[in-house]
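cron nightly-structures :: item 1 of 1
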Amino acid sequence: MKKVKSAGIALGAAASVLFTPALAFAEGTESGGVDILIPKIAEFIPALVIFLIIWFLLSKFVWPKVIFVLDAREHKIEDSLEQADATKAEAAEIRDQADAIVAEARRKASEIVLEARGDAEKERSRIVAAAHAEAEDIIAKAQDRAEDEKKRAYMSATDTIAKMSVAVATSIVGDTLANDEAKQRELIKKYLAEVGKLNA
């Protein structure tokens, strides 16, 4: 198709070149000033032959290379456009993958945060329970110590009361029964037995 077009253009150019001198010669005889611009037949034929040879050489050797370069450039541009489209599609796919990765990372981060909150709540509950247990243990030990102190104070008071009672009784009994030592001892034993019952 391209060769037919180039051949048609060449024939049209050759016909216009051939008919131009005849018209120019016909007009040249009538007007004297135009003779300078119009070549003579003896000059025109060799110029036409040289033109046709140059045109043939150009159409045979140069024009195919020009067409080849233009076709190669066209193919290169088409390939570049296809590659650009492929790159664009690949970039869109990579962007979608990146968006999916970011969404997954956000989901995992929220899961980690929720898990950390749950662990923190469990740890807080454990610490509170341990603190309550320790407080109850301290309270129980304090109550045991208070009970022990109470028992010691009671024992001490009982002992002191017993000693005072014995001293009072001894002095009372000693005054009344100064001469009867056996009765005095028996009264003391009785009193001590009573005090022993109180301590038990």
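cron nightly-structures :: done
Residues 92 and 98 are 10 Å apart (CA to CA).
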